[in-house]
Amino acid sequence: MRRSEKSKDTKAKLAPKEKISYEKKIDPALTNYAVQSLTLLRKAEFLMSAPKLGLCVEDTGYEIAFAGRSNAGKSSAINTLTNQKQLARASKRPGRTQMINFFSLGNPDQRLVDLPGYGYAAVPEAMKIVWQKELENYLIHRQSLQGLVLLMDIRHPLQHFDLMMLEWAHSRHLFVHILLTKADKLNRGPANKVLLEIKQQLKKMKLDFSIQLFSSLNRIGLEELASVMGGRLNFTLAQEAEFDLDQIPEASELDEPDQI
Ligand code: GDP
């Protein structure tokens, strides 16, 4: 065999191997679980708002709390995840912006919690300190809390509030899933660079964490977030019986998220 023929032959042998390893990267079980989790997340219903830990819904079952500085994209993310345009608005009604807002996910023992936003300039300092104390109380003492989803605008990560939340989570060994939001604002290369940098910084803090890119605008990372939520909220195979996969709309059929 001539040299050029040999190299062609080697290439031909390599090609299918590359293809196989690419296919292996797609985990159909994970995708299926994400779709199933999305189905349950879309059953979200507003339960109640509480100004302090003592007035929260009964501390049973599982809950995941969403936190972020105001304007980080928290309401948009919750609306996208639950496919309900108005859901997170319930937390933005007058009087509720500084409350702990509870949503059931088809079962009152599996909840999504929308924590008060942070950074409302118009609020007096003394009031901010009271809210901060309530937030800390909730994060430290809530037994059903399985983890925190911390949202940070990819262009302004790890601000004072974010570090404070991470410290509280660390002190309680609470799992934190970080969303670098509005990922559509950066190209893929720079977005991945920020992802890597933040990951390295957080590793140094010895946190129990995971991190991903997210965009409510074009739904980057929606399945990944749904899988993490499902795992932490203990979405089980027993609940699978209720799933109707035909009811899941394709991404292109979904409404555009609110206010974007
Ligand atoms: P919250 O204060 O954290 O609840 O933030 P919102 O969800 O209200 O979003 C704040 C602003 O960011 C709004 O103008 C949204 O339209 C915008 N926004 C939210 N998510 C995204 C996103 O994924 N991409 C882009 N480009 N804008 C977003």
> Kindly state the mean pLDDT as a whole number?
82
Count all strands and give the number.
Answer: 7
Number of helices: 8
Gyration radius from CA atoms, angstroms: 21 Å
Span between termini: 61 Å
Q: Given the helix and strand composition, which structural class is it?
A: alpha/beta
Give a written overview of the molecule.
Helix 2 packs across helix 7. This protein is about 40% helix and about 15% strand. The N and C termini lie far apart (about 60 Å). The protein has a 7-stranded mixed beta sheet with strand order 1-3-4-2-5-6-7, with helices on both faces. The protein has 8 helices and 7 strands. The protein has helices spanning about 5-25, 30-40, 75-80, 125-140, 160-170, 190-205, 220-230, 235-240; strands at about 45-50, 60-70, 100-105, 110-115, 145-155, 175-180, 210-215. By secondary structure, the protein is an alpha/beta fold. Guanosine-5'-diphosphate binds near residues 181, 215, 259 and 260.
Descriptive terms for the model:
single chain; 260 residues; 7 strands; globular
How would you sum up this structure in a few lines?
The chain is an alpha/beta fold. It has helices spanning 3-25, 28-41, 74-82, 125-141, 160-171, 188-204, 222-232, 237-240, and strands spanning 44-50, 62-68, 100-105, 110-114, 145-153, 176-181, 209-213.
Topology:
Blueprint: H1 3-25, H2 28-41, E1 44-50, E2 62-68, H3 74-82, E3 100-105, E4 110-114, H4 125-141, E5 145-153, H5 160-171, E6 176-181, H6 188-204, E7 209-213, H7 222-232, H8 237-240
Parallel strand pairs: 2-4, 2-5, 5-6, 6-7
Antiparallel strand pairs: 1-3, 3-4
Helix pairs in contact: 2-7
This protein binds guanosine-5'-diphosphate.
